[in-house]
Specification:
The structure is a homodimer of 339-residue chains. The first copy, chain A, has 339 residues and is of the alpha/beta class. The first copy, chain A, has three domains: 43 residues, Orthogonal Bundle (434 Repressor (Amino-terminal Domain)); 129 residues, Rossmann fold; 131 residues, Response regulator (Rossmann fold). Helix content of chain A is 45%, strand content 16%. In chain A, helix 12 links the parallel strand 8 and strand 9. The radius of gyration of chain A is 26 Å and the shape is elongated. The interface between A and B is large, with 63 and 64 residues. Chain B binds a DNA duplex (16 and 16 nucleotides) through helix 1, helix 2 and helix 4.
Chain lengths: 339, 339
DNA sequence: CTGAAAGCGCTAACAT
DNA sequence: ATGTTAGCGCTTTCAG
């Protein structure tokens, strides 16, 4: 494999200066039409392509954007949470189309996070989920475009953010149940106290009940570890309360655990319990009955995230923006009309 | 934000030469213990970190490894195939631990793929799935370490490859069914003729039947589009043949489609049909009944892929290796013992 | 053991 | 319109 072609090779070949070559490559309008064409031809002929590293070194501007994930173990993160992969795919597509490279970084444990970060020479940053405040501060001190996806803490207001409207989502879910004749509607979530997302989803449930004049019963609120097994365990408790006809879950995975619990007890969904999930994960339409759920459009999320970042990258506009995505109801088979 | 610290800053600060600083940074044994310590201290104090771009420019060796995916649309690839995300997570973890950066690239349509590739200055390459031969040739001409994951075509033998043992997998599946008393075992796959993976899975099924003296019946072989809907459609045909008691599917997603079909007809799995899948995708344990399946360990796959690549990267050993991963049977609820 | 200096490929003044 | 040249930050001979 021969050495790669540089602008010097082209310049020598054409007996012109490297600068001229550089100009045509970068579309700087300083060269005659004729040389421009000759250069373009030579580029093809000699098989030239730009060395991005050299460009960076010269301009000080890298083309690398980093995506930070809130896990120190990427393999676990991606395998347990299909959301990451989907978001990544949607995000990366557009970011690359604009000529940026994407680096995927786990949440590294490091005192020198700030220093480490600086050494990366990033052009922009996007984070997914909750990080220790220190990390955000370090990112901020870099003074480069940055967008925070799915962070709900107070300090997020100082950054450009993107998230979905969680309370609207569970409001819709609850309302849908009510419209299907349900009054005894339970709610199942991970932890309303510690998870801001769960809390917001709870608030939507609560608001819907209130708006429809249905009393909120303390004993209709269930907690579980936010996993399939958590849902499975919770199903036992839910079954015990014979009055409950419907359940809104703060996550599909919980809903599926509950469905499993009912299946194992030979009870039927939606006959014995109407159930509605949240997220619309891939499995939601695979299970039987297919899960009615609140969909958060992850592809859309990825698209918006990249748009937010790219706009800021290209325009050097660092003003703070907050985008909220509206979820939608996906009607499938797990809710039964009663009365 | 102040300019980043360079080795010159450190050198000036310590009144030594940049070269010495470079030496200690790279562990070149040419500096006195004393200056070494002073440099190390200064690095901490001044907050220095290496500029990888400059290193590359100087040495010509980049630290970037690229992962190529066989889709021009990454968002679709990742969302439809959770496998990608999981593999990525597992792979990236180890590759980063060794200090390499990972670039994720879609299958770009380009006459100049070869040229484009060269401009990326990659240190190593890993591909996932099937690509046009031209692409592999271009990669090969780069003469850098490269590992092909899940490619079954003949030319793959010229590269280092990694795949699972598909025929063993379906052999195990079929054998398991036989051991559970089944004799009338159907097989469902995407397309045995065009997909080498499907073909191998078919071969394992066939071999198991033969070894156990069960006649292979043409009418027990079903074809479907390799999707959930494909499985759903195929379920109708399978139901019609009342003799069939069990089914081995070449993919979990197909199995789930079939399960859905049975559910919609008010038939029960595994009572009306025992079913076994292949892959162990995430949903496999979420559905009811949970799907018994052949697991291909994707985390393991990612780990081995990174090991293969890293070994070759660090040792400059470009000898060709072929690794085959053994799948395992995951016993769940979708197979019933009969007789 | 330490330093000077050339050079990696490109950009962007500054000259011509 | 085109050429010259000084960096960007680092590595690496080659001298001292």
């Amino acid at each position: 494999m021969s050495r790669k072609t540089t602008i010097y090779d082209i310049a020598r070949y054409l007996k012109i200066s490297p600068a001229s070559v550089s100009y045509v490559i970068n579309g700087v309008d300083k060269v005659s039409k004729e040389t421009k064409e000759r250069v373009l031809a030579a580029i093809k002929e000699l098989g030239y392509s730009k060395d991005t590293n050299a460009v960076y070194l010269s301009t000080g501007k890298s083309n690398t954007v980093a995506l930070f994930l809130p896990s120190d173990d990427l393999s676990i993160a991606f395998s347990q949470n299909p959301f990451y992969g989907e978001f990544l795919g949607s995000f990366i597509k557009r970011i690359q189309r604009k000529g940026f490279d994407l680096l995927i970084e786990p949440l590294i444990e490091s005192k020198d996070f700030s220093k480490w970060l600086r050494g990366k020479n990033l052009r922009g940053i996007i984070t997914l989920g909750k990080f220790p405040l220190d990390y955000f501060k370090a990112i901020k001190s870099l003074d480069i475009p940055c967008v925070l996806v799915d962070v709900y803490e107070d300090y997020a207001s100082e950054y450009t953010t993107l998230r979905i409207n969680d309370s609207d989502g569970s409001y819709m879910a609850t309302e849908y149940l009510i419209n299907n004749g349900h009054k005894d509607i339970a709610f199942l979530a991970g932890n309303i106290e510690t998870s801001e997302i769960d809390n917001r989803r709870y608030l939507g449930y609560k608001a819907a009940l209130k708006d429809y004049g249905i009393e909120l019963k303390e004993e209709y609120i269930f907690k579980a570890e936010a996993t399939f097994d958590g849902g499975l365990k919770a199903s036992k408790d839910i079954m015990e309360n014979k009055n409950i006809t419907a359940l809104v879950c703060a996550a599909d995975i919980l809903a599926m655990g509950v469905m499993k619990g009912y299946y194992l007890e030979n009870k039927r969904i939606p006959d014995d319990l109407s159930i509605i999930g949240f997220d619309d994960i891939n499995s939601a339409e695979l299970v039987s009955p297919a899960l009615t759920t609140i969909k958060q459009d992850i592809m859309e999320k990825g698209r918006l995230a990249s748009k937010l970042l790219i706009d800021s990258l290209l325009s050097n506009d660092t003003s703070i923006k907050h985008l909220v995505i509206q979820p939608t109801l996906i009607e499938r088979e797990s809710v039964k009309k009663i009365n």
